[in-house]
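Item description
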Amino acid sequence: MNLLQRIWGSSLGKKYVMALTGIALFLFVIGHLVGNLQVFGPPEAINAYAHFLQSKPGLVWGARLGLLATVGLHIAAALTLTAANKAARPVQYAGGDGYGASARSRYMVVSGLVILAFVIYHLLHFTVRLPGINGYGDFSQLKAQLPGVGTVPDVYAMTVIGFKVWWVSAFYLIAQALLFLHLGHGLSAMFQSLGLRNHVWWPRITAFAKVASIAIFLGYASIPLGILVGGVGSDYVKQVTKAATAEAAAKEAK
């Protein structure tokens, strides 16, 4: 406990916490993207992936709680470091920001909080499936048949229907743009906090940060854009919603 208190009690310790939690969140972002990109495949692909996760509640909830703790530590370290930096220099630099401060570094906290707000909405939209926030209604009505399994939630239809709503896709793209800015600076700052900034590694690290942030942005942005512009899953969703409407009408008739 004393060791943890000493780590958290120093600015250097908080920077290590930010760096290590940043690595964990970066890996999660990549894994989540790989799973989501299955929407470009047949409906069975992403439905099977979602069913696999839902069939392992212990694993999923352990990952969720671990991710929540990681996000909490990352945000707490960022906010306390920002407050400490302001307290150390209450008078602003002449001409505004400090020398060498980029737009990305100045707005890391703001972009991080907006991304957090989006994550909460995203969870309510696709995980909790809260009716009334997705422009469709009750996602729990959408079911699909998975070979060898049976009836499962139709995550493919939920994804396509969700991103067919323009303001949902717009919010998603804004959040991804902020994530791009956040990662572009955060990845390089993370390695710097771990002591890897030198004349040999730094150019490679900054290049990696730029390439990785661009690739992640393009990957995530391709999903709503592919649905809105490319019509991914349009015919499938028409069939699913027609069947769901017919089933609901039959239940009401009884």
